[in-house]
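Record 1 of the preview.
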Amino acid sequence: MSFIYIDESGDLGTKSSSSRYFVMVAIKIDDSRKLEILVNKIRKISKNEIGYMNELKGFNLPNDIIKKIFKNLNKFDYETFIVVFDKSNRYKLKDIDNNLLYDLIASELANLININEHTFVFVDKTKNKDNEIKNFNKMFTDNLCNYKNYSVSLNHVNSMNFKGLQIADLISWSIFQSVEHENDEFIDLIKNKTIKKVF
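->
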């Protein structure tokens, strides 16, 4: 059994204040409890630094704690899949709205992921309409490398309740720091990376 957690950093907006890049990340691991134990451990030993924040997020964690998390994460067998969208190419997709663009980027992410057993996928919830969730699920599952048709359960959930999504957030934030701000101090700590630039 495998578990996949998906989160993103940046935005798909076109305002001058919008980000230049949009990053979507998936972390795949064989046991979700490993990520739960890791987050709980870090919260316990770092409670004086992080207090009682509801969830771990890259933008509000001290750098040393993020590095500590990745150091402990690297004791596990996991894979990360990363799609980077350079929004300077947005003009090529002028007839596509942001909702569909999000799904297309997610399908590019799915293309990187091999499914070789029953898999649970958890996506940080950004969609609320049933038809949008249904369309996302179909496009994502259709693009997974799942040649033997293993069952895939896809769930849109609140990251506050899923430690794996909090780890995915830290990874996506770290990749975003690299591409948006040319800061590689975090990305270099993440192992087993597959990175794809799209559009």
